[in-house]
């Protein structure tokens, strides 16, 4: 128990250390958690400029042609093989250099255009979009752009822009969401000119592709010793050449979906990595990884939105043409509801991602929380919408597209999309981890004011009385302000009646959210950090408020440029009505919950007291595989597929 607590403390300290606590620019979501509604940040909606849009349009046309000529998504899914020719054609278009600045040979695309390309590729083939996204959303280009030296950029970026592939290796067999347990070790050489890297990395996307030549590896470097003599674990980031002696592509991993990706387990044995290949300074690794993921996280929602777009046409045709019980299935109300949720949530996700990409391009707002919210919300709702789409298609939704085609029917890849997209809720920070990141910021104001009083840190300079006075001064102003009507920093009169009402709700709910977080903090105090479900309720409220605001701003924009088309109004109105229902349920769950019962039953299971539930079931793996711990078996699918 004490060991568990210690491990949790180390994980928290490391996460806290890597967390960027300063806000250089405003953040809509951070302000919202304090009760402010920053409508001015998103209204008027920052639409893509005509010039930037034209660049994206021209590229999308070429991307479509290459995809349709060289990529067969059904065959990739069936065979688990990805065509080298297709990768070469994508590279010729510059798609491995989309985020690399032009001066280093890349396309230098805006974040908005990058998201549009990933959206189109995502609407066609999940494996292809993962190849591109792992390479530049998390692979070498992004961290080098932000933290690399000029020499590093000149040395590595032009190679990648030309089509060499990169990857990102953080995960290890015992390290998933908790990098504090990292074992991969980089020891400085005696003469200080290189590091010696040893360790195993798991599930490295692109890691098994023979064209992957550079990889970002996160590794422990010698601990820093604090002033009080306490060792502080250091994680550092390195660019490693894949052809360095000691790097082994150990085994390809195969998954439920994304069957064309070349993902694998890598081992590093006494690999010499020159010191000049370290990105940033020793100990900056996690910060680099987190910063990389800020914009990187937008790739996944963009691809997910693309996947939903793929089925819009089919949704229209199928729901009309499939007639059961005397009418089109789309006219049965329970199916209408699914269609409507699909369309309205796709609209809202598009608004949220376009807005956050525009923030990233304009560099006028901090997108840390917005990117986490987009990653979390989109991966959850892409999954929900795909599940609904499969349901609407009935048995044909569950049938493989090649099987449909073989029977002479129009193929539709609902089941491939579901298998491909399910991972969105797990990788690049799981939904639970997104909750943790956002919850930390939701309580930040109160934690930073109150914690030093309740639990002073060793060496803390200010006295508890001085800190209590500071907190009193803040709360005596801030708390009453959460009951005041929202200051009208937005011109509501220009909006439609329905949107004005939704906007008023968002504005009021921001204050209510901030107040309720404060009350809950008072009630649970330090223990609040362990109340994940409760904090999750707050995060879900905050996320829905952010998406509502983005969707309202986007709808207003579309209505103003094309007043003849009122469809955005219907979509935003439905989305907001749904979101409001979820928000009210979440507010209610903060005071009326049975979270302790979840913990109790989970503990019963974990303590082995519920095994009787499995009576009459075969709970062991099939006999042939029961020696899994001893036998390093070579299953044909997992065998290393080194292609020449
Ligand atoms: C197809 C695929 C591609 C991948 N590509 C890469 C890659 O290119 N590079 C790379 O480094 N990694 C990659 N990964 C790894 C991926 O990022 C991890 O799977 C992910 O980080 C989760 O880690 P884990 O699987 O070890 O789960 P764990 O961390 O063991 O978590 C298990 C469960 O517990 C939850 N959990 C964990 N900690 C907490 C907590 N504190 N509070 C609440 N819940 C918690 C998690 O959300 C999850 O539901 C890939 C994985 C897959 C499957």
Topology, please?
Blueprint: H1 2-18, H2 28-33, H3 50-70, H4 73-79, H5 84-92, H6 111-122, H7 126-138, H8 141-147, H9 150-161, E1 165-169, E2 185-188, E3 194-204, E4 212-225, E5 231-241, E6 247-252, E7 264-274, E8 278-279, H10 285-296, H11 299-310, H12 312-321, E9 323-324, E10 327-328, H13 333-362, H14 368-392, H15 395-398, H16 401-406, H17 414-421, H18 431-442, H19 444-454, H20 464-481, H21 497-524, H22 532-561, H23 567-591, H24 595-606
Parallel strand pairs: 1-4
Antiparallel strand pairs: 2-3, 3-7, 4-5, 5-8, 6-7, 9-10
Residues 134, 167-171, 176-177, 203-205, 255, 258, 263, 423, 426-427, 430, 432-433, 436, 532 line the site of flavin-adenine dinucleotide (FAD).
């Amino acid at each position: 128990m004490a060991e568990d607590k210690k491990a949790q403390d180390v994980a928290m300290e490391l996460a806290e250390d890597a967390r960027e606590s300063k806000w250089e620019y405003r953040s809509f979501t951070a302000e919202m958690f304090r009760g402010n509604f920053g409508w001015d940040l998103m209204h008027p909606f920052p639409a893509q400029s005509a010039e930037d849009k034209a660049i994206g349009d021209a590229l999308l046309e070429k991307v479509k042609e290459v995809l349709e000529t060289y990529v067969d998504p059904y065959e990739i899914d069936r065979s688990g093989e990805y065509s080298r020719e297709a990768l070469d054609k994508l590279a010729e278009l510059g798609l491995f250099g989309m985020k690399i600045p032009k001066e280093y040979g890349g396309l230098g695309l805006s974040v908005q255009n990058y998201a549009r390309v990933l959206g189109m590729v995502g609407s066609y083939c999940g494996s292809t979009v993962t190849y591109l996204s792992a390479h530049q959303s998390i692979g070498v280009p992004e961290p080098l752009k932000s933290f690399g030296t000029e020499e590093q950029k000149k040395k590595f970026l032009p190679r990648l822009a030309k089509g060499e592939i990169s990857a990102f290796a953080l995960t290890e067999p015992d390290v998933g969401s908790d990098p504090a347990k990292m074992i991969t070790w980089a020891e400085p050489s005696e003469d200080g000119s290189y590091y010696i890297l040893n360790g195993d990395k798991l599930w490295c996307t692109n890691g098994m592709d023979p064209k992957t030549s550079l990889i970002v590896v996160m590794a422990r470097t010698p601990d820093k010793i604090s002033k009080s003599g306490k060792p502080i674990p250091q994680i550092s980031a390195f660019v490693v050449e894949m052809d360095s002696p000691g790097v082994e592509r150990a085994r390809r991993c195969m998954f439920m979906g994304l069957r064309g990706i070349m993902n694998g387990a890598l081992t590093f044995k006494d690999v010499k990595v020159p010191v000049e290949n370290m990105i940033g300074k020793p100990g900056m690794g996690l910060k680099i990884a987190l910063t990389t993921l800020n914009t990187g996280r937008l790739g996944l929602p963009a691809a997910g939105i693309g996947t939903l777009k793929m089925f819009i046409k089919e949704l229209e045709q199928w729901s009309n043409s499939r007639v059961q019980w005397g009418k089109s299935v789309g006219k049965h109300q329970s199916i209408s509801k699914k269609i409507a949720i699909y369309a309205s949530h796709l609209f809202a996700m598009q608004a949220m991602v376009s807005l956050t990409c525009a923030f990233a391009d304009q560099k006028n707002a901090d997108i840390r929380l917005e990117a986490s919210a987009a990653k979390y919300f989109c991966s959850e709702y892409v999954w929900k919408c795909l599940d609904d789409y499969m349901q609407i298609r009935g048995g044909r939704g569950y049938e493989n597209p090649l099987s449909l085609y073989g029977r002479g029917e129009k193929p539709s890849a609902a089941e491939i999309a579901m298998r491909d997209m399910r991972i969105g809720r797990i990788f690049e920070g799981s939904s639970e981890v997104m909750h943790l990141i956002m919850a930390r910021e939701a309580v930040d104001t109160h934690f930073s004011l109150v914690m030093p009083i309740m639990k002073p840190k060793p060496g803390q300079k200010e006295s508890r009385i001085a800190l209590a006075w500071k907190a009193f001064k803040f709360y005596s102003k801030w708390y009453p302000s959460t009951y005041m009507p929202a200051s009208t920093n937005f011109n509501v009169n220009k909006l439609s009646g329905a949107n004005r009402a939704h906007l008023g709700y968002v504005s009021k709910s921001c204050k209510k959210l901030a107040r309720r977080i404060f009350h809950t903090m008072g009630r649970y105090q330090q223990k609040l950090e362990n109340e994940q479900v409760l904090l999750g309720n707050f995060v879900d409220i905050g996320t829905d408020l952010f998406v509502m605001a983005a969707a309202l701003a986007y709808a207003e924009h579309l209505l103003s440029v094309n007043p003849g088309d009122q469809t955005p109004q219907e979509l935003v109105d439905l989305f907001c009505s749904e979101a409001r229902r979820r928000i009210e349920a979440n507010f209610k769950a903060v005071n009326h919950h049975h979270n302790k019962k979840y913990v109790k039953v989970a503990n019963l299971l974990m303590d082995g007291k519920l095994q009787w539930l499995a009576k009459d079931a075969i709970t062991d793996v099939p006999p042939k595989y029961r020696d899994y711990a001893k036998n390093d078996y070579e299953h044909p699918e997992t065998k290393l597929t080194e292609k020449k």
